[in-house]
Write the structure tokens for this entry.
Amino acid sequence: MPELPEVETVRRGLKELMIGRTIEGVKCIDSPKSFPNDTATVDAFMIGATVSDVRRRAKVLLIELSTDYTIVVHLKMTGQLVFRGEQAFGAGHPNDSLIGELPDKSTRVEVALTHAKLFFNDQRKFGWMKLYPTLEVPNIDFMKKVGPEPLEDAFTKELFIQRIRRRNNTTIKAAILDQTVLAGVGNIYADESLWGAKIHPASRVRDVSDESLAVLHHEIRYVMNLAIEKGGSTDRNYVNAEGKRGSYIDFARVFRKEGMPCPRCETTVEKTRVAGRGTHVCPVCQQEPVE
DNA sequence: CACTTGACCTGTCCGC
DNA sequence: TGCGGACAGGTCAAGT
């Protein structure tokens, strides 16, 4: 569900809403899966702590605390972090939020803050949040192996080509979904950027020229920046920190557009399956590889 | 080692 | 209306 632009949107919202607030209590409804820490650790390093920063690496959120502990959150497919407090909503009521009264049946963790609450909701329970010493965060397995941030200046097209060539034998879609090649691309932005670069998702990486990969590098950054500007994509579950929708999906060119005309050539967009994922292509703009 | 597939969960939608 | 099966935006373990 949430890819880099969605997680970044949540990060910006949470940073605005949570910084400086003190954690007063934690209620875990789905322990240990959604929040595996023991009570002693939570009591010692979370209760009474103040939120000092909210950061992001790849699709992971990092809520940094004054105790030098960090709440690490992965939303996976259906996770949501929804803030309710006097700042965002009059008297703490949901108003224009897509989410109704909280907690609800998908609520896994409830964090009480000064005059506010943060709800970790997750319908499918794939997501998790976990407390780590801040210094240990870089040593988490995922953090050690995850690839470069695509929106940073250091992510040059040369670096992208060099890293993606390590996956020369697989399909280009599987390669850009691989978080060790680059961070943050998921199913939506994979399809959108491959359409932008006119590359068929089932093409083998080895059959894609460096010139095409350079275009793809540009498209990945373009699509992700645009999606952040639009507040992410709300297709089913995703909402931002205030429980509101993102609008990138209204600007999507192929994702969830099967049966609609390709915005470039008017050919009907098709849905297939590549790398085990639902995949949207324009059969004319994106020529199917000949095997 | 590189690559693919299934598992983790719950909910929804579609066809019979 | 009920029921079974496929599918849903991510990642990891286990399989080939």
User: Anything to note?
Assistant: Chain A is about 25% helix and 20% strand. Strands of chain A lie at 23-28, 51-57, 60-65, 69-74, 79-85, 107-113, 116-122, 128-133, 270-274, 277-281. The radius of gyration of chain A is 20 Å. Residues 210-229 of chain A form the longest helix (20 residues).
